[in-house]
Specification:
The structure is a homodimer of 311-residue chains. By secondary structure, chain A is α/β, with parallel strands linked by helices. Helices cover 33% and strands 22% of the residues of chain A. An eight-stranded mixed sheet of chain A has the order 2-5-1-6-7-8-10-9, sandwiched between helices. The first copy, chain A, has a two-stranded antiparallel ribbon with strand order 3-4. Chains A, B: GO terms for molecular function: phosphoribulokinase activity.
Chain lengths: 311, 311
C-alpha cells in the first residue's frame, strides 16, 4: 500500500506555484466583502481568486437545522480540504450556494490565482483551515454598527424587512458568541471600525479604525508614517490584548480633514514600500461614492502582507 | 512559505485508514455496473463506496461541446484529485450528474468506505488517476455484443429509440477509438464476455469470459481450480498480450452444464482462500433472474484482489 502512496505523489505535481491565502473572518455584515473588494480591485482581479465560505453551506435554506453560524451548517472539513488544495496550487470544484434561491447548485471549477482571499463566517474555525492561511484578519465592529450595516444590506439587497433582520440577529446571538467571536483570538490582525467614543462627531463623519497588529506574523514597520505630526490622523500605541499579551494598536481617525487623510494615506503607502506608485483609487471605497481613509489604510496593511507573503 | 506546508501537514490527519480502490473501465454499456454491483452486494454495501465517473461531467447535456467520451467533457483533473483524497482516506464533495435531466446538480458528501469501486468511461485516462488504484480492470466485449447491450439498456431505461442509440454509436466511434480503448493497455485485468467463436451454441447460452491476468499485479494462484478435469468449464493458457508480452489467459465457458458450472465456482472460491464460506448468491447475477458463471468467476477474481490489497 505504501508504494501506491509514492506512485500517487510522483504522479501529482508537488512543485506547483503556491498562492498566498488571506482570510477575512467576521460575523454577518461585519464589512468582509467591502474590505476584500478594495484589495481585489487594487491588486487587479486577474491576480486574485475570491472565495466566500457561504458556498460551503451544507443545507438548502428550506432544510437548515441550525442558523448559518453553526459549524455543522457548513461543509467545514471540505472547506479545509479545499483551502489545502488551493494553498498547494491545485484547482478545486467549489460548491455554489445561490443566495437568491437558498439552494446549492452546480459546482464551479476554481483555479487558484496568485492571491486567494477567503471571506466568511467561519474560515478560522478549524485548525487545519487556519494552517492554510498566510494572513488572517477578524473584523470586529461594535454590535450596534454591525446591526445597522446588516439592516441596510439585508433590506436593500436581500429582500428582508427590518423586523426580519432584527429577529434573525436575536436568533443568532448565542451561536455568534459560541462560534463566530472566538475566531477573533486566532487572527493576526483584528480590525474595528467604530466612532471614537470620547468625541461627539457630526453625523456622516467616517468611522475610525483600530487595528490590533499581533506578533503572530511579521508586521510592517509603519514608523515613517507615524511621525508625531501625523497623530491627529494616525498613531500607534502599545496595548494589551484581550488575554493580556502585548500588542501594537494602530488608530486611524475618521474625523481628520481630507487633506490630513490624503497625506496619511500617502505616508503609509510609502512606509509600506510602494514608493513609486500612487495610492490605488480602489482602496477605501465604500459602495458607489463613499470613501474612507481608515478603510484604505486597513486595506493597505493587508495588501502589504499579501505581497510580502508571496515573496 | 515552507513552514505553512508543514503546519498544513501537521494539522491534517496523515494516519487515516487507506481504502482499496478498484477501477472498472470500459465503453458505454460494456457491463461495468453489472460487474461492480455483484461485488458490492457480495462484500456488503456498508463496506463499499461506488463511484461513477459520469458524475464528473463538465457540461450540462444541452451545452456539451463533445461526446461524453472526450476527456475534455469531464472534470478529469478533479476526478484524479478526488481519487487521491479517497485513496488517503479523506471525504470528498462529489459532483452529481442527473442522468434523467442531463444536468449537474448539488454535490454530495462521500466518505470513503473500506473498498471504493470506481466505474466509468475514463477512470484510467490520466497517470495520476491510475496511480490511485490498487486494481484496474478493462471490460472489452466484442462491439456487436456491446451494441446489443447498449440498445437494450438505452431503449428500456433511458428513453431512447433504437435509431438514436445506433446514431450515437456511429457518432462516438472515433472518440471511442481515440480515448476509451487505449485504457485497455493500462488495466491489470482485461475481461471479455463473448460467445466462443468456434462453436455454434443455442440461443440463450450464457456468454463465456476470457480474463487476461497481467503481471502488473500479483495475480491469484488458481491452480487448484484448473485441474484438467475442469477444462470443459475453466482453463488457463499461456498467451501473448496485444503488445507481445507474455500473459495468462483464463477462460470460463458459458456453455458448461449447470452442475459443472457450480463445481467450478466452488473450486475457484476455494482456490482463492474463501474456504469456509459458500459462494455469495450475489455473484454472477444479471438483472432480476439471469445468472452467469463466467461473470461470477470474474467477480470472484476481482473480490480476491480487493481483499488481498486491503491486507
Amino acid at each position: 500500500m505504501a508504494d501506491k502512496m509514492i506512485r500517487i505523489r510522483r504522479a501529482s505535481h508537488e512543485d506547483r506555484r503556491r498562492p498566498v491565502l488571506l482570510a477575512i473572518a467576521g460575523d454577518s455584515a461585519a464589512g468582509k466583502s467591502t474590505v476584500a473588494q478594495g484589495i481585489v480591485d487594487a491588486l487587479g482581479p486577474q491576480r486574485c481568486t475570491m472565495l466566500s465560505t457561504d458556498d460551503y453551506h451544507r443545507y438548502d435554506r428550506a432544510h437548515k437545522p441550525f442558523t448559518a453560524l453553526h459549524p455543522d451548517c457548513h461543509y467545514l472539513p471540505i472547506l479545509a480540504q479545499h483551502l489545502q488544495l488551493l494553498a498547494t496550487g491545485q484547482p478545486i470544484l467549489k460548491p455554489v450556494y445561490d443566495h437568491s434561491t437558498g439552494r446549492l447548485i452546480r459546482p464551479q471549477l476554481v483555479e487558484p490565482a496568485e492571491v486567494i482571499i477567503v471571506e466568511g463566517l467561519l474560515p478560522l474555525h478549524s485548525k487545519l483551515a487556519r494552517a492554510c492561511f498566510d494572513v488572517t484578519v477578524y473584523l470586529d465592529p461594535p454590535e450596534q454598527i454591525r446591526r445597522s450595516w446588516k439592516i441596510t444590506r439585508d433590506t436593500t439587497s436581500r429582500g428582508y424587512t427590518e423586523e426580519q433582520v432584527l429577529a434573525e440577529l436575536v436568533e443568532r446571538e448565542a451561536e455568534s458568541a459560541q462560534f463566530i467571536r472566538p475566531q477573533r483570538s486566532h487572527a493576526d490582525i483584528v480590525v474595528r471600525f467604530a466612532p471614537i467614543e470620547a468625541r461627539d462627531d457630526a453625523p456622516g463623519t467616517p468611522l475610525s479604525a483600530s487595528l490590533l497588529l499581533r506578533t503572530t506574523i511579521q508586521q510592517p514597520d509603519l514608523s515613517e508614517a507615524l511621525a508625531p505630526g501625523m497623530a491627529r490622523t494616525i498613531h500607534m500605541r502599545l496595548a494589551r490584548d484581550g488575554d493580556g499579551r502585548p500588542v501594537d494598536s494602530v488608530h486611524v481617525h475618521g474625523y481628520a480633514s481630507p487633506e490630513e487623510s490624503a497625506t496619511a494615506e500617502k505616508m503609509v503607502w510609502h512606509a509600506l514600500g510602494r514608493d513609486g506608485s500612487a495610492v490605488p483609487e480602489a482602496l477605501g471605497r465604500i459602495g458607489a461614492d463613499e470613501r474612507s481613509t481608515p478603510l484604505a489604510i486597513t486595506q493597505m496593511v493587508l495588501m502589504h502582507h499579501v505581497l510580502a507573503a508571496g515573496r
